[in-house]
Write a structure and sequence with these properties.
Helix content: 25-40%
Largest sheet: 6 strands, mixed
Shape: globular
Pfam family, one: HATPase_c
Number of strands: 24
Enzyme class: transferase
Structural class: alpha+beta
CATH class of the largest domain: Alpha Beta
Radius of gyration: 34 Å
CATH topology of the largest domain: Heat Shock Protein 90
Distance between the termini: 75 Å
Oligomer: single chain
Number of domains: 5
Catalytic activity: ATP + protein L-histidine = ADP + protein N-phospho-L-histidine
Strand content: 15-25%
GO molecular function: ATP binding; phosphorelay sensor kinase activity
Function: Involved in the transmission of sensory signals from the chemoreceptors to the flagellar motors. CheA is autophosphorylated; it can transfer its phosphate group to either CheB or CheY.
Number of helices: 20
Length: 718
Amino acid sequence: MTGGYSDDLSRFKQTYFDECGELLAVAEAGLLRLSPQNIDLDEINAVFRAVHSIKGGGGTFGFSDLVAFTHEFEAVMDRLRSQQIGVTIELVDVLIRANDVMAQLLTCARDNRATPPGLTDAAAADLKRFLAAVAKKAEKDEPVAEDAPPPQRAVRRESLRSFVIYFRPKQDLLLSGNEPAFLLRALRRLGETEIVCDAGLVPSLYDMEGESLYLYWQVSLTGATDEAAIRDVFEFVVDDCQVDIVETTGPADGGEDEAFGLFSENMPYVPPGQLTVYDGCAIPGAGGEQPAAPSAARPAGEAGGSGGSGLGGHTIRVDLDKVDRLVNLVGEMVITQAMISEQLRDVPPGTLQQLVEGLEELSRHTRELQESVMAIRAQQVRSVFSRMPRLVREVAAQTGKEVQLATSGETTEVDKTVVENLVDPLTHMIRNSIDHGLESPDERERIGKPRSGTVHLSARHRSGRIVIEVEDDGRGINRPRVLEKAVERGLVAAGVSMSDEEIDNLIFLPGFSTVDTVSAISGRGVGMDVVRRNIASLGGRIGVHSTPGEGTRFVLSLPLTLAVLDGMVISVGEQRFVLPLTNIIESLRPKSADLQSVANQYDVIMARGEYVRLVYVDRLFRIDKAIGDPTRGLVVLVETEEGGRLGLVVDEVLGQQQVVIKSLESNFQRLDGVSAATILGDGRVALILDVAGLQTMSRQTINRGARRPPPPAAALAC
């Protein structure tokens, strides 16, 4: 029994920590959007609920340090949402730091480590400072005359509804991190309230448990509200208390509408005997008189209002390792199905027809299964984009620049593995854009730009890949200085002639930096080379486009998934290659008259009124026994990521096939022009070609066949 209980507790804790990760992200995103110019009460309430939920779970598991700190955090958020505290830049900074401290406390709790001494001191002191300011202001605004009537609130009687709420919490409510004071304050915000406390069940001091709750409450509420809004107040404690709500026919006191005194931490004491206990709730009565049973009251465990909003979609948490194993099994299934199909190709037509039909049916089911599994792994890039506002805020503060972050395409979906590996590259690129790209506010104003610079982060699908761009409206790349620094650091030979594109790509070299002094942001010569290496490890690539005085744009191109793709199997000599199907436009066999050469460097072909550069795959990879002649082999027209076209000269197109992607870099080494490898149906290993890599390789070498007549001038634009 002990072992089973321990396993259950560990599982519940893991679920709690998983949920806390999501709640921390929600809180941080809401705080980053909060500013004196942008006050959204829904966002503030969302942050409050996140902190409250973390505190409640922490209390359940006995994380005392976490509960103590989140109590202060929650108190400030409560004052903020009740507009007792105004939104300032300083307050937002304090709340963001408090969220970081809360994350550190959760990490310590998850790892069963003691909280480092002084971890919460500074953040807790800042939070208490704001709470003290609220208390001081309330004390200052308090009327001098003790019997002065509270201000009247003008409301239309016909728009008001009156309720009596009987609130009886369980004795262990406090252990879950919940506080009745917060709930009662929330009720007070719904209208005019009269709150009466029953302390009749409070035991003697000798018998009292310090962490138990012995008080019950009755609240008379009159306001422009409904029962659903009242039950929303108790949404987080619905399982830890009994709440009965009775709507009365008139105002709660049967008299004129009036504002009652504000509820404070010091609850009014009502001697035993003034309240009668009915059905577990404290109900006022004279001489033991019992009122009628509240027929409209719901069962205590039934949530009202939005309490059931989470039932709109059913989800479960699954360990990612289990999904990965499922993906691998589906991949092996695809390979096995391809092997069986390969064996049946030699069967004479008309024989084993039922087996052939069954195999086709299996192929359809395998594809559906593969698509379903990949959909499980698909994740929106929003999870990465949501981390960047915090980064922009911090780097802008460190550099003294004014920066706005614009995002688009957050709902673009990509494989979870790809998403997880995007954080570091995007972090480096955004830091680079702010530190090196954007000018200072004064400089921008002097040259006629807005003082605030903009970094635009976008994502979209293109040609079966995901393209992510980081663009700024800064000064652009200073190419003379980049080349000077590259020569100074020995990365480029002195006097070498380089194109603008080649100079721009120097920033990706290891050890390159244009900064003379090392700072917390840059100057160490690491960053952009790490970006290129990380992107390459995912089968992707990165390019840079810059216009002096206007800005710089980094373009990342990554595969949508690292598991399976639809490809076309081609042959070059005795080798087999796979081309991603999304890149292929068409295949054709040109005539000799359709071929032209450009400056004795490469060949082009006229295809549908446009000259297309030819790439001889056999020459790039030095493959023997290949046809190598487009007029006897085939030209496969493919689309590049920039929207251009290439013509790949191959021997033969063998057919379409779904293939399982195997990382070449992790199992062998990285090869130019190749993104990954796969296993074909006959058991042979085939390389998956990278169209952009082939384009780059063809530009770096003479890639042409027999000498051709010079092309028309229009072809020189290729």
